[in-house]
Structure formats: C-alpha cells, structure tokens
Design a protein that fits this description.
heterohexamer; A mainly alpha (70); B mainly alpha (263); C alpha/beta (208); D mainly alpha (222); B: 263 residues; mainly alpha; 7 helices; D: 222 residues; 9 helices; 86% helix; elongated; binds protoporphyrin IX containing FE; binds adenosine-5'-triphosphate; binds magnesium ion
Chain lengths: 70, 263, 208, 222, 222, 208
C-alpha cells in the first residue's frame, strides 16, 4: 500500500489539484458522453415512432422503399 | 409509354454477396446492440483494475513524485485519440470505395469519442505539465500535433453536423477524414522538424527512465479499458445512426414496434 | 431512349414518390404536371443525374446514366430554376460560357444571333445584374437555339417571368425541336399555346 | 477536352478583371494585416525583424483563406455550377482551371508584394528571394487545399468560418515550411530542403486535390 | 417601438441557435489563428509571451472581420432587408438589434475564450482580467464600426475584402488601446486610462453608428 | 390616395419612362402591363419608395412619401420578386418575423392559420430551404391574409410559380381586398381568372 492515510491519498504529494483535476474532468466527460449517447438513442426511437404515426406513408410495411443494391 | 405504377416488394434481390453481409445495417444493428453492453462492462472492469493498480500498487516515481499518476489516463487517451482517427479514416475510405453506408455511419459514430479522448489527453497533459515543467503548455512537437488533431476532429464533426442531408454529410465527412488522414503524418513530421530547427522549447517530455512494471501494467489495463469503452460507445451511437438512416425500411418499422411494445 | 425504373425519391422524412417507372422511346414532349411541392423539380433533377434517387435507376439508351455519365450529358440540356447567370458578365459572355461549359463552341456570332433572336438585341452589352427578371430568363433560354443537336431537353418551368410574346415563341421552338426528332421534358403551371397538347405525366397520381 | 478548362479560366479571369478592385483589395488586406502587427505587438525593430517572416506568411495564409469561400459560392448560387457538373468533360479539369484562375488573381499579387512589405520590417535583403520563392510554391498549395474545403462547405450557412476550421490544420505544414525556409536561410542553414519539400507538396496537391474537389462538388450538388 | 428591435434580436438569436455550429466555429477560428502564430514565428516562450496580447487582439479583430460580411448578406439576398426598410419603425433601432445579436454570437465567445488562450502563451495570470475587460469593451466597438462597413459594401462583388479594407483603418485605434491596455498593465503603468478610453469609444459608437448604418442600408437598396 | 406625378425613371443610359402620372383615388385593382424589361418592376419600386425616381414625386393622401415615410409604410404592403425568406427558419417563423418587421404582431395562431389557409399545413416545421419553388412563394403571400388592414398592396408577379389552384385562390383574395375598399397594384404576365378585369396601365405606351 502506497498511502499512509486518506488525506495523503487526496493530497497526492502536493499535486492533488492536478491529478484529481485530470481524473475529474475525464470522469465528467465520459459520463456526459454516455449520457448523451443513451439519451440520443431514446430520442431517436421516440421521434421515429411519432413520425410514423404522423406520416404513415413514410414507413409502410408491405410497400416500403427497397434498399439500394450495394 | 409510361406507367406510374407502384410495384410490390420482391425479396429475391436481397444481398447475394456474402462478404458484404455484415456491412448491411440491418444485420449489424442487432449485433451491435448485443455486444455493446458486454464491452461496457468489460471497460468498467478493466478500468477498476487499472486504477487499483495505478493508485495502490504502483510505486511513487522517484523523479516526479505522485504527479505521474496522471499517466494512467493521459497515455491511453493520447493513444486512443490517434488510433480512432486512423480507424475513422479507414471506414471513410471503405465507404467511398465500396459505397457501404454502414462504413460512413461507423466513421461518424467514432468521431465524438475520438475528439473526447483527444481533449482528455490535452487537458491531462496540460495539468501534468504545470507541476513538472512549470507551464501548462509549450509548443512542443508532440503537443502541437495533438492540438491539430483535435482541430481535425472538430472540423469533421462540425462539417457532418452542418450538413443535414445524410447522404451528403456522409460523403463530405469521408472526404475530409481522408484528406486529414493523408495530412496527419505530414503534420506530425513537419511539426517535429519545425520544433527542432528552432531552438527547442526549454523543457521537453521526459519519461521516467525505467518505468516500473506495475506502472506499465496499470497503463496497459487502462488502455484496454479505453478500447472497450470506445467499442461500447460507438456501437451504441451507430445504432441510433442506423435507425435514423434506415427509418424508411420495413425492418426499422418492425424494430420500432418492438420497442413500443416493450415500453 | 430515356428510361426510368422504379424511381423513389425521399426528401427528409417525406417520401415524394416511389415505384415511378417511365420510358420515352419516341421523340415528343412530356409535361410533368402536379401541384406545388409534389416533386416535379426533384424528378427532373434525378432524370438529369444531379440527384441520386433513393431507389431505382435512370437509363439512357439502355445504359445506367451513372455508369456512362459523359455520353448522357453530351446529349442532355437541362435548364433549372436557377438561370446560371453571372451578374457581372454580359448576356453574350454568359451564353458563350454556358455553351463552352457544356462542351460546345458555337462562336460569338451564333451566340449573338441567338440573343437577338430571343429579344435581347438591346441588352447585349449590359451586365446581367441590371436585366429585368424576364430578360434574365431569356439569356438562359437562348441556349436552346444553339443546342438543337442535343436530343434531350429537360426544362424546369421555362415560361416563368416571360411575357406573352416570348411564351408563344418558346412554345414554337420546343415544338420544332420535337418535330426534328428531339425530346422535351418540361414542367409548367402556365398555359402555353401548344399546337398539339403534350403528353402529361401527372405526379399527383403517383405521389405518396 | 481542354474546352471547359480554357473556358473556365478565361471566364474567371474576365470576371476578376471586371471586378478589378478585387485583386487590389485582397492585396490590400494582406498589406493591412501585416501592418496591423506593429500596432498590436509594439514597434521594437529587433522584435519585429524576428517575427517578420512568420507574420508575412500568416498574413498570406489568412488572405488566401478569406478569399477562398468566393471560389465556388457565386457559381453555386446562380446555378452555373449545376451546369458545369452536367458538362460531359471531366470535372477535375475545370476545377483545376478555377483554382488556377483564383490563384492568379489572389495569390500571385501577394507573392509580388511580399518583398516590399518585408523591407518594412527590415528583413535582410538576401532573404527576399527565398521569401518570394517560398510564397510562390506555397500559396498554390494553400489554394488547392482550400478549394477542397470550399467545395465541401458549399452552400452551408456557416460556410466561411467552417471552411477556416477545416483547412487551417491542413495549412499548418505549408506555413511551417514556408516560414521555415526564410528563417533557416537567415539562420545560415540554407533553404533548399524546405523549398524542395514545398515543391513536392505542390506537385502532390496538383495531382490529388482536383479529384477530391470534384467529388466534393458532386456531393454538394445532391 | 420596441417591436422590430425585439423581433430582430429574437430572430437572429434563433438563427444562431439553429446554426449552432456557427458559434463554436467562429470561436474555433479565433483559437486557430492564435495557434498559427507559433508556427509562423517559432516556439520560443519568451518571444511568444512578448507578442501574446498583440496576437490575441489581432486574432479577435480578424475573427470579427471574417464574420462581419454575414451580418446583412443573407437578409439582403433573400429580400428580408427590403422588407425591414419598408418597416414604419426607425431603422437605426433594428440595426442596433442586429449588431447586438451578432456580437452576442460572435464577440462574446471570444471574450470568454481569450484567457485560456493567453495561458497557452504563458501570459502572467494577473493580466488576464485586463485582457478580458479590454476585449469586452473593444469587441462591441469593432462590431458596430464593422456594421457600417458591412452596410456600405452590401451586394458588392468584392464585398468581403472591400469591407476589410474599409474598416481595418477604423479598427486600428481600438486595437492600439486594447492591446495597449494589457501591455501597460504588464509594464506596471496600469490599464485604467486605456480602458476608460475604450468605454468612451463604445458609448460613442452605440450612439452614432446605428444611424450611419441605417443611412448606408437605404443607399445600398436603391 | 396614391398619386404619382410626372415620374421619370432612368436606368444607366436608358430612360425607361418619363412623364408618367397616375392617381388611384378609389379602391380597385391596377395591373401594370408591358413586355419584359419595359420597367414594371422599376415603377413599383418607385411607388414603394425603395427607389428614388429620376424626376417626379409619389404622394400618399396628398403627402410626399419621402416626407411622411412612416405613415405610408404603415399602410403599404409590398411583395417583390424576392420572397424575403430565411432558409433556416420555418415558414411559421419567417411569417411571424415578416409581420413583426412590418410593425404588426398577429400572434402565432393567426400566422399558423394563414399558412394552413395558403396550403402549407404540411410544411409548417420544415426549414424554408427545402421548400419547393411554389411553396416558397406561398410563404411570402401568406402575409396577405394577415394584412387586410393595410389598404395598399403592391405585388410584383405574385402568380409566379404558383399552381393553378393557388392562382385562383390568390385572385379571389385580391378581389376580396379590393371589394373591402383596398387598392391592389400588381404586375403579371399570366392570365389570372379575375371576375372583373382590372384596370390596366400599359407601360409599353409610356415607355421611351
Ligand atoms: C498538453 C500537454 C500534453 C500533450 C498534448 C501530450 C500528448 C501526448 C501524446 C500524443 C502522447 C502519445 C505519443 C506517443 O505515444 O508517441 C503522449 C504520451 C506520453 N506523455 Fe504526453 N502530452 C502532454 C503533456 C505531458 C506531460 C506534461 C508529461 C510528463 C511530464 C507527459 C508524459 C507522457 C508520457 C510519459 C507519455 C508516454 C510516452 C510513450 O509511451 O512513448 N505528457 N503525450
Ligand atoms: N427535408 C424535407 N422534409 C420534408 N419534406 C421535404 C424535405 N425536403 C423537401 N421536401 C418536400 O419535397 C417537395 C420538393 O418538391 P419539388 O421542389 O420537387 O416540387 P415541385 O413539384 O417542383 O414544386 P413546384 O411546383 O412548387 O416547383 C416539397 O413539397 C418539399 O416540401
Ligand atoms: N444600367 C442600365 N443600362 C441600361 N438599361 C438598364 C440598366 N439597368 C436596367 N436597365 C433596363 O431597365 C429595365 C428594367 O426593367 P424592369 O426590371 O423594371 O422590367 P420589368 O418590366 O419588371 O420586366 P419583367 O417583366 O422582365 O420583370 C430592363 O429593360 C433593363 O435592361
Ligand atoms: Mg419545381
Ligand atoms: Mg419585373
């Protein structure tokens, strides 16, 4: 074990703000990205479902636009 | 002489070339959905292990003290940001050559994550530089080219966001990704040369002479975690993209029905 | 000659039409009709190869136009909503450039004659910027007099902004082209004095 | 085959001549940006001399950038581009003509004016030749790379500034070698290596960018 | 009376929000221009620190300039300006609203980003406040003066660059006082006098330029 | 109410017309006619006060419009060639802004109703950029339904790009405005189904 106490751990040999600043910002960014990605998926599903109700011709089982041949 | 009639769907023309099977968004969509959570959990596990080693096993650096512990995110993030750009350019090229829509979507799904890692490496590097070099920033070759890489990412994202028509934004983005990729090595070497021709910055990257093996293990674990995280996030993102692009097909309709039934 | 197979056009969330097939084997005039926003312009741009259809294919003499772009574009004259006029150049310069960019060079005299013919004899040396709305349209249309060799004309609202005399004149020109074996595809909301009513493709029937 | 190339070249040069002020005005922008610096950073001769090559090159780069969005914008708005894309001749060809005309109108004057401005900053006279040569080789690269950006951002609302964002990272190597050529000449190392690299870059850009640009234009017209 | 003012302000902010990338992108341009300088002039920290305030101010000025021609161009092209000029309310009022919206979208982000960039050049932390203040007072003056230029060059072919030529001389005093404020703070003289002058300039510009701008717009529409 | 005295219009070297006087004292419709380039648009812009005539004066209720600009512009609605549409805004936002910039605020509901009335019910939330040519025109014309209170309408080629149904509808709207005591001055090269033929000012007679 490297640390004698928690306060030593948080202090990081005097470089606390720098080390924890790095980790905190990274954590926040990762959390934000996850949040936006998951929310985007929910919104997409909701939007498309609503769209299908409003403009039924847009998606029409049985006569849908076929995929372009790739 | 003309007939404006509608035609029925013929299922006979469906994909015959098996090589491109996975390139069909319809096929990839459920696969991505199934794999993403696994990668996410893998990333979390690797991250916990890496951080444990990084903070509680790896010894204090005899030169830098504790500050060096930034390395466990700094280096994986820097690596990841460079890899992701290469992968992005690869997908862009595949898309332009083979005209597979999924490739474009992959490229666009990767970009925000790449930009995020790029920013993280800059941010952590800057915070690391302050106590070790006494300044947040020097115009060192590696730092500078990382900054330019961030601009390349931002340009790609801004361009694809600014174009609403998805077909246009796919291809336009692919072109700028490729042009950027051709330039990345040029930028890298020119920046290096530029910096050595002038009197160099008064400080330069000094790495711990012999990295303790525990440090290395921690770093590698974190790098693997970053890989797994990238997979998870880009799979999730590409699923949204697929749904949007393919919203006029039958299978998306069925998928939406399923989602609604579940909700 | 010109053949469209199973065209589908998707704009944003709206499917304008799908399963639209047609073929123009003989010379003659086709009027694409339908109310505002039904997709006439979109169809013409697909037929020209300026837009890719969401599904389907356009063929010229049996060959996909994406595959053999050059041959098709050598046979095609498209005049769209925008008059392709540079405001600083004179009508004459604009016309000459338009021809050259299409790969032709009819020479200054022929261009001048075409402009005089279409009623811009007094505006040959003005910058296009100061022309009236109808005069601007005419500069673009003057290309018709120099492109008799191109069999396929696709014109989007050619009568817009023209006065009555010009509409009659243009109608006669189009009919002459068809008589000489050419094809004309056009859209218009106006009545033009055609001697023989053109065939009509009514998009409102096909639209989704 | 050369028809559209010459037609486009001639037309664009005519247009430039008709809007004559334009040529002078790009140049004026270059001159003004260079002259702003002493106001910004103070007027000590030594400091100014040290930053002169860099400032000149940055100013040339910014003037190029500022004029880039006009490369296709007008033709896009009035429908000319549509017609050019319907031309049966290869697109890359007339794209090259457009870029060439653009460079003659906006790049060449900078090359010619640069030595005069360098004298204002008290740059040693022997270095002027290198400066001119570096600009003559470098500014066409900027125009070619910029054309790709201009084609990609065509018709987008934030076009002008988005364009800047896209191409500036690509411009950096040119800037480094361009300004570096002068600096290393002044430093006694000799500028040959830099200039050779710029020349190679120019050839590469001529060979590749017109195709990227043509593809981008087709995409933009969709 | 406030109707058109608020309508214009709201519309322009909506437009900016809709083209959200725009705000970021003006900012990115500022950042990139600042970052170009080290490539041009070399990476010596001392030299960079000495020219930092000047470079930041020049970059802010150029970003403002680059975004200026968009101030009226769109509205001119699509006929909105014609309609606004037929409005019964005073022209100067909605002109002010347009400039205000423009500054919020393009100027404010620069003010906010400047301190971060200053750190890249290793500028002393105490001077950051002065830098921000000088930009906050100076950049609206740039926008107001620039609006007059934008109105005067409206619809002219070489608009963008002619605009630059017209307004740059007007920008010079702002640049001198703005960069001077930071320099004299660093030099220990204190920046109060400079900042007061900038404040006074701002008030004067608010009081006068909208009228000049209104007149220029009426002339441009003739 | 609206009175023009001895108007002369000079464009470059060309005198389009001079000594043109007219007065519209009663309500009713005036159609300014003439071939392309005769000066119709130029005349309308002079009548609006957007261009200064080379000679002569326009009066509104006896007062020079240069002198009492505000009062005149409060009574005037001008729709020119350009549709005054921002490509990024939706039709609804465009319309609301157009009204607000004219000093009115009819509220979102009224604007929405006007757009639905003119046939854009399905396009309320699209950016104007993607609208078809005819749909763009309609957004501008929707203002007519909100400006019944303005007595004087000056319309330059209002029927351009509209389909047949929309032309009929617009004609009816214009006639209703005249019946309610308003004035309409318009130009058009198209035939519109007016129930009572409007008065005609034929510029080809006045032109120099
Ligand atoms: C903003 C500042 C910084 C940036 C943008 C930056 C960027 C990078 C990049 C791109 C890499 C990966 C390069 C490669 O593997 O070839 C890297 C690796 C590394 N950086 Fe940084 N860095 C910064 C500051 C620092 C500082 C202050 C230190 C420590 C004093 C540091 C230490 C390291 C180490 C030890 C590596 C791993 C080297 C290797 O594996 O070859 N960095 N950095
Ligand atoms: N992104 C989008 N989302 C929804 N609808 C769209 C989108 N883009 C275009 N449209 C619609 O597609 C249609 C385009 O029609 P097009 O321009 O082809 O019409 P047109 O038949 O030529 O009409 P006009 O007679 O008015 O010229 C319009 O109805 C427009 O509203
Ligand atoms: N600088 C100039 N020199 C000579 N003639 C000019 C100049 N500027 C404009 N003109 C002419 O003035 C006329 C302007 O006409 P205007 O736009 O008013 O026509 P219009 O009657 O509205 O025509 P249209 O029916 O085509 O809309 C045009 O004939 C144009 O050629
Ligand atoms: Mg149309
Ligand atoms: Mg007219």
């Amino acid at each position: 074990m490297q640390w004698t106490s928690w306060s030593a751990f948080w202090d990081m040999g005097g470089a606390g703000p720098f080390v924890w600043g790095s980790y905190a910002v990274t954590a926040v960014l990762v959390a934000l990205e996850l949040f936006f990605v998951l929310r985007r998926r929910k919104e997409t599903v909701r939007r498309l479902s609503r769209l299908r109700r409003v403009v039924p011709s847009a998606i029409e089982p049985g006569g849908a636009v076929k995929e372009r041949i790739e | 002489m003309m007939n404006g009639t509608e035609t029925e769907t013929e299922d006979g023309t469906k994909r015959s070339r098996s090589l491109l099977r996975f390139a069909a968004p319809q096929v990839f969509y459920p696969i991505a959905g199934r794999l993403a959570p696994w990668f996410a959990w893998l990333a979390a596990g690797l991250c916990v292990a890496g951080l444990w080693i990084g903070f509680f096993v790896a010894p204090t650096d005899f030169q830098q003290g504790e500050v060096y512990r930034v390395i466990f995110i700094h280096v994986p993030a820097a690596w990841m940001s460079m890899f992701i750009y290469l992968i992005m350019a690869f997908w862009a090229a595949v898309g332009l050559v083979m005209n597979t829509r999924l490739s474009f979507m992959m490229a666009q799904a990767l970009a925000p994550t790449g930009a995020m890692f790029c920013f993280v490496s800059l941010w952590t590097g800057a915070l690391w530089g302050r106590p070790t070099w006494g300044t947040y920033w020097v115009w060192d070759a590696r730092l500078t080219s990382q900054l330019l890489l961030l601009f390349l990412y931002l340009g790609f994202i801004a361009l694809t966001q600014a174009i609403e028509d998805s077909r246009r934004s796919d291809r336009a983005g692919a072109i700028i990704a490729l042009v950027g990729a051709v330039n990345v090595p040029i930028i890298y070497f020119s920046v290096q040369w530029w910096n050595t021709l002038h009197q160099g910055a008064s400080v330069s990257l000094t790495r711990a002479p012999s990295m303790a093996s525990t440090m290395l293990v921690g770093m590698l674990l974190m790098a693997l975690a970053a890989w797994a995280y990238t997979f998870a996030v880009s799979f999730w993102r590409v699923r949204s993209l697929i749904l949007e692009r393919e919203r006029h097909t039958e299978w998306v309709a069925a998928e939406l029905d399923e989602q609604e039934a579940r909700a | 000659m010109l053949e469209a197979q199973e065209l589908a056009c998707l704009k944003g969330d709206r499917l304008l039409f799908r399963g639209l097939s047609m073929s123009l084997d003989v010379s003659g005039m086709l009027r694409v009709a339908g109310p505002n926003g039904v997709g006439k312009t979109s169809l013409l741009r697909i037929l020209c190869g300026l837009t890719m259809p969401e599904y389907g294919m356009v063929r010229w003499h049996g060959e996909d136009i994406r595959r053999d772009r050059e041959r098709y574009h050598r046979a095609l004259l498209y005049l769209g909503h925008a008059p392709a006029l540079n405001d600083l150049l004179t009508p004459l310069e604009n016309l000459r450039f338009a021809c050259a960019s299409g790969g032709e060079d009819p020479g200054a005299e022929a261009c001048r004659a075409a402009l005089v013919r279409i009623g811009l004899g007094g505006q040959l040396d003005l910058p296009a910027r100061v022309l009236s709305q109808g005069q601007r349209r005419r500069v673009g249309l003057a290309r018709l007099f120099l492109s008799a060799a191109r069999p396929c004309w696709i014109l989007d609202e050619p009568f817009t902004a023209l006065d009555v005399a010009a509409v009659a004149d243009l109608t006669a020109t189009l009919e002459a082209h068809c008589e000489a074996g050419g094809t004309v595809i056009l859209t218009t909301h106006q009545d033009a004095p055609f001697t023989r009513a053109p065939r009509v493709l009514d998009l409102s029937g096909v639209a989704c | 085959m050369l028809g559209p190339f010459l037609a486009v070249l001639q037309r664009d040069l005519t247009l430039a001549w008709r809007g004559r002020a334009d040529v002078l005005v790009t140049l004026a922008f270059f001159v003004i940006v260079v002259c702003l610096f002493p106001f910004g950073v103070g007027a000590e001769t030594n400091q100014l001399r040290a930053i002169a090559p860099g400032v000149l090159w940055v100013a040339a780069l910014l003037s190029t950038l500022l004029s880039l969005h006009r490369l296709f914008a007008q033709d896009h708005a009035d429908g000319t581009l549509e017609q050019l894309l319907l031309s049966p001749e290869p697109t890359a060809l007339w794209v090259l003509a457009k870029v060439l005309a653009h460079w003659i109108v906006t790049g060449l004057p900078l090359v010619i004016a640069a030595p005069g401005l360098a004298l204002l900053f008290d740059v040693e006279q022997g270095a002027l030749g290198v400066l001119v040569l570096s600009l003559a080789l470098g500014s066409p690269i900027l125009a070619l790379l910029g054309a790709v950006g201009a084609a990609l951002t065509l018709g987008l609302r934030s076009g002008g500034v988005l364009l800047a964002l896209l191409v500036l990272p690509l411009f950096v190597p040119v800037l480094i070698f361009g300004a570096g050529a002068v600096d290393s000449h002044l430093g006694g190392t000799g500028a040959t290596a830099h200039l050779l690299l710029l020349g190679g870059g120019l050839l590469g850009a001529i060979a590749m960018t017109p195709f990227a640009c043509a593809a981008a234009l087709r995409i933009a017209m969709e």
